[in-house]
Design goal:
With 325 residues, the chain is an all-alpha fold. It has a single domain, classed as Orthogonal Bundle (Farnesyl Diphosphate Synthase), CATH 1.10.600. Helices cover 72% and strands 1% of the residues. A two-stranded antiparallel ribbon has the order 1-2. A hairpin with a 2-residue loop joins β1 and β2. α8 packs across α9, α12 packs across α15 and α15 runs antiparallel to α16. The longest helix is centred in the middle third of the chain and has 28 residues. It starts with 10 loop residues before the first helix and ends with a helix.
């Protein structure tokens, strides 16, 4: 789990979420237990549980509502999506470790992801938290639509920035937005605060994914936990690549050709494509848009009461801009 200082405000609560997850995933089926613990112990920033806790703590100072199960549920939903994503992307490495699909196979992985999602649903207790359950149901539908859109757009060099935003909204932003919203809903926050926190989470999620996509182009496998350019290798066209493809010169045409050929010469073609994107200015343009989303996120915090929680939410926004993994 990340030790980013901005999570110090909820350090104890995050430790409780971690312990809860370890115990909750102690499933009776041995292989489901092993695969769940493998995914859990692979690490991760625990950003989604952190947002549940922070959003809930603003109006839950006396801890009249136990947010730990809800926070754990959001991490289980995220884990489920990662297991499914690795099957779709045929990924071998996640966070520097072998993926569930490599160790247990694709068919098992699909059922494992489904099982984690079902277990998350149980934690939410839909019969007691109808509004929260509705938020997560709608989010799940949108996430599936985003995954399908991504699958159908692989190696498509004609897709637009709007197409890209459609995908990352559903891939990342809605889950972070929902994490903020359910924390606020669970603690009966004022309606305007619920709406502001949802928008904050949405803008943070958009910025986070854009930054992630830039790091995929820039980083080394030892830092980002997977091979550089792994998205592009799978045919996933992200914002830096879209900007690079928009150029009028020979390099842009070459990039278009390499992608359409699905990198026929393997790593040599992929490395050439990455060089073109890195030298095109596309990464810098994408990061500029990410920063604009960060500024929008911070503006949403203006209506919240001043204090350490609000400060932490602002610092998280800054961390997303500055992070290198």
């Amino acid at each position: 789990m990340t030790n980013v200082f901005v999570f110090n405000e909820i350090k104890k609560e995050l430790a409780s979420v971690e312990k809860f997850l370890e115990q909750y995933t102690d499933f009776s089926h041995s292989e489901l237990k092993k695969s769940a613990h493998h995914t859990l112990k692979a690490g991760g920033k625990r950003i989604r549980p952190a947002f549940v806790l922070l959003a809930g703590k603003i109006y839950n100072q006396d801890k009249t509502y136990d947010l730990i199960p809800l926070a754990a549920a959001m991490e289980l939903i995220h884990m489920s999506s990662l297991v499914h994503d690795d099957v779709i992307d045929q990924a071998d490495i996640r966070r520097g470790k072998s993926t569930v699909r490599v160790l247990w196979g694709n068919k098992f992985s699909l059922h494992c992801g489904d099982y984690l999602l079902a277990q998350a649903t149980k934690l939410i207790r839909p019969e007691e938290n109808k509004e929260i359950a509705n938020v997560l149901a709608n989010m799940s539908v949108e996430m599936c639509q985003g995954e399908i859109r991504q699958l159908l757009s692989l190696f498509d060099t004609t897709q637009t920035i709007r197409n890209y935003f459609y995908r990352i909204k559903r891939k990342t932003a809605l889950l972070i937005a929902a994490s903020c919203k359910i924390g606020a809903l669970a603690t009966n926050a004022p309606k305007e605060a619920v709406n502001a926190l949802y928008k904050y989470g949405y803008y943070i999620g958009m910025a986070f994914q854009i930054k992630d996509d830039c790091l995929d182009m820039q980083g080394s496998s030892s830092v980002i936990g997977k091979p550089a350019g792994s998205d592009l290798a799978q045919g996933i066209i992200t914002l830096p690549t879209i900007f690079a493809l928009r150029g009028k010169g020979e390099e842009s045409r070459k990039l278009n050709s390499l992608i359409k050929s699905k990198f026929a010469n393997g790593k040599e073609d992929l490395d050439r494509a990455l060089d073109i994107v890195r030298n095109s200015g596309g990464i810098e343009k994408a990061l500029s848009i990410s920063n604009k989303y960060i500024n929008k996120a911070k503006k949403q915090l203006q209506i919240l009461p001043s204090g350490s929680i609000k400060n932490s939410l602002e610092q998280i926004a800054d961390y997303i801009t500055e992070r290198d993994y």
